[in-house]
Amino acid sequence: MSTLTRGNASTGMGIDRRNRVTSSYDALIAERTFREVIIPTAVPRLSIAPSTMDLLGVELEISSSADRSYKLRKALQAFFVSGGEDPGRATYVLVDCPPSLNLLTVNALAAADAVVVPLQCEFFALEGLSQLLMTIDRVRQTLNPALTIHGVVLTMFDPRNSLAGQVAADVRAYMGDKVYDTVIPRNVRVSEAPSHGKPILLYDLKCAGSQAYLKLASEVIQREERWRATLAAASL
What pTM was estimated for this model as a whole? Predict the structure, then answer.
């Protein structure tokens, strides 16, 4: 697995900023390949394309290019082609998007097969969800017709908070089976993990947050298998 980030995921995986000699920025401007950029993490079979502050200026550098919305897609295509029959090649590529709609986000959506939407169980998150859905629809119409929503995952859920329950109910009523069954609860250990440079599964495997993310991963894989089976059946 690999992920393109603006820095938080790199820090959370314990990648010191001083060790980020090359980054996702270099891959986007085609000075390096992703195979040259990615580095292993403490999680088996999980590698990361770390980011640096250079990524903040990448929009200015690529904005005048005719293929500015496809820089990430092209870099990833080259990554998979160069992998050949490598048994260690990536099974999934996770693209961690910034929280705003900019050229980096557009590149991510243009390159992705599907979108996983984390949604905090807060009122304003509902407004953000509607805006994101419109953005995905525009990208589907103009840049990536195959783009789909894999699922919406409800996060930071506090069962003691009636508003959280109402938001969860509203999202499920609106999005239907696009919402994962798994809900990620508010959990202090999840909040602590990044400051120790560890993903929650390495920081505290037994906490409620870790167990919820393990369940979510299983649900994502199961959906993926059903989706692939449906595509295979349709092609017969």
Answer: 0.86
